[in-house]
Amino acid sequence: MKNLFKISVIATILFTSVNTYANNDDLSLKVNSAEGKTISLSINETQDMKVTFYGMNDEILYEKKGHELSGSTKTYDLTDFPDGNYIMKLETDLKLVEYQINIQNNKASLSIASNKEVFKPVLTKKDGVITLNLDYTNKAPVEIVIFDEFNNQLYTNTYNNSEKLVKKFNIGKALSNQLTFVITSKDQAFNKTIDVR
């Protein structure tokens, strides 16, 4: 029954897009309206985005990743959602917006459960150098700790000016096969293990 419900939800969510391209890597998310059981979302900047709908027991009812273009409009038809509470998460590389959806008497009401900047540092490896990019407007201090595969701490530092943090780590002479980056700020944490060899 649960699988049938999930399939029907996926089948009934409608997507419409206006394909206007803008050469910009940022994305602004804005929910235009919640009429009846339909929710419209406008995308003001081009970027990759993930949309996830969660049910009452935190089960994922629908999830889709895609490259969304500036000027796009997405419409989600929640007709097959029974009365109850749901969460819609819209996530990009740098932002996570959660909307709480309440459906009662065939009408969806929408409220922002939380709207926070996602703490997602970007780590890239090229030519023996790992580059950390962090675009973090929170301005809270950021701590970076690097461990080898045996959990030995190789590096630690705290950066107070973290709004646009770029750090390069030369791993050309590293003896480790893997490095784990643990990056924390306030109540958020990010971990990533990178193969050195």
Descriptive report:
- The protein has one helix spanning 2-12, and strands at 29-35, 38-43, 47-54, 60-68, 72-77, 84-91, 95-104, 107-117, 122-126, 129-135, 142-148, 153-159, 164-170, 178-185, 188-195.
- The chain has one helix and 15 strands.
- The strands form four sheets. The chain has a five-stranded antiparallel β-sheet. The chain has a four-stranded antiparallel β-sheet with strand order 12-11-14-15, with no helix packed on it. A three-stranded antiparallel β-sheet has the order 1-2-5, with no helix packed on it.
- The termini are far apart.
- It folds into two domains: 2-117, Immunoglobulin-like (Sandwich), CATH 2.60.40; 122-195, Immunoglobulin-like.
- The radius of gyration is 20 Å and the shape is elongated.
- With 197 residues, it is mainly beta.
- Strand 7 (95-104) and strand 8 form a beta hairpin.
- The longest helix is centred in the first third of the chain and has 11 residues, at 2-12.
